[in-house]
């Protein structure tokens, strides 16, 4: 088992078991080695849905505003501009 590696799986935080197979959704940048990550190197199956992140986000924003729900955002400290 991977030491000290936890994930939220179906709403519960649990240790990742290296004997299990997990599904993962990501973008093509990270899937193909962006930032030094190779998320698909040992994948049993990779399915490209042909969706762009900005299109999916825009559709979500449109749907939420059309339904009259307010959108909000917040800084979480991960990005620093100097």
Short description:
By secondary structure, this protein is of the alpha+beta class. It has two helices and two strands, in the order ββαα.
Nearest-integer average pLDDT = 85
User: Uncertain runs with pLDDT below 50, 5 residues or more?
Assistant: none
Q: Mind summarizing the main beta sheet? A: 2 strands, antiparallel
- Side-by-side strand order of the widest sheet: 1-2
Number of domains: 1
Tell me the quaternary state.
single chain
Helix content: 10-25%
Order of helices and strands: EEHH
Number of strands: 2
The Cα radius of gyration reads 17 Å
General form: extended
**Could you tell me how far the N terminus lies from the C terminus, measured between alpha carbons in angstroms?**
39 Å
Classify the secondary structure makeup into a structural class.
alpha+beta
Strand-residue proportion: 5-15%
Number of DSSP helical runs: 2
